[in-house]
Amino acid sequence: MKYAGKDIVLYDGPKGSMFFAKGYKGCADIYNIEAYEDSKDIIRKYANAGSEWIQTNTFNSNGFALGSRGYGDRQRDIISNSIRATNEVADEMLAKNGWRPEVIFITGPTGRMVEPYGDTTEQEAYDSFYEEFKIASECGIYNAHIETFMDLNEMTVAIRAASAIREELAKKGINYKIICTMAFESHGRTMFGNSPEDCYEVFKEYGVDAFGANCGCTAKDMLKVIEGYSAAAGPDAMIIAKPNAGKPITQGDKVTYAETPEIFAHDCLALLDAGAKIIGGCCGTSDLHIAALKDLLENS
User: Fold this and answer.
1) d(CA 83, CA 60)
2) N or C: which end of the chain has fewer CB within 10 A?
């Protein structure tokens, strides 16, 4: 896809928000097993909306996150089922449209405080990330999007684990892509105080292929983050922007996001102007938001 004369990638949106909109509760990852067709349908909606990268439904699929939810012994099935569902959707798009979206394996943080901030050691966190990346690579997915991290130290541990997989696959002649996005707050830093410039230095050191921001804030608030990344990394960097669809509105145990697809799409253009080359959405971003963004891009 093109915007302002440059090649960009249209990414998808979150799976959890879509499950919750269907009335599901709890850990969305388990529905890769218990509601396989619904899981597949959510991925299909984003693909039909025009997403060129489509994520697996595996945000909570590292050992710590699954274990805390009682699903630690089902990790391999949860990951493999989601990869199968996402690949099936990608194959559908190829048959239907003549092009195949790229399947991206994702993981979120452990949900634990990793040293020096907590009791979970870096080695324990490393082993947890390595295991899920290994499972995904054994299922034929040669990338990892490490997303929604607030602690750059934990992100670095996850990158090291992904880098180990990359080195192993390189010996077999297989290219492995590492993608990283941090969650920034509205003031332009993560909860742990990390700036875009801080993050870029780590990403540069480890040869991360694409990096940026997801979750944490709206497109308007994310603008300063993307500008920071762009100033540090230069115009050729593959910068990712996946903002939320507005600010969260909590009513009882239900969280919603009120930003319309049209407003979301409009605000995302500024992120592209600031240097983002990969654009999608996070919390509250439905397939309708992605479709509106695609339509705006095609007519800009």
Assistant:
1) 14
2) C
CA distances from 160 to 74, 112, 150, 205 (A): 24, 18, 17, 11
Give 92-124 as a DSSP string: HHHHHHS--PEEE-EE---SS-BTTSSSB-HHH
Closest CA to 103 of 71, 66, 142, 55: 55
Q: What is the pLDDT of residues 50-61, one digit of tens each?
A: 999 999 999 999
Domains, the chain, with CATH or none? 2-298 (3.20.20.330)
Sequence-ordered list of residues with C-beta below 8 angstroms from that of 97, at least 6 positions apart, any chain = none
Tell me the per-residue pLDDT of 26-67, one tens digit each, with 9 for 90 and over: 999 999 999 999 999 999 999 999 999 999 999 999 999 999
Provide φ and ψ at 62, rounded to 5°. -80, 160
DSSP output for 211-230: EEEEEEEEHHHHHHHHHHHH
pLDDT digits (tens, 9 = 90+) for 173-199: 999 999 999 999 999 999 999 999 999
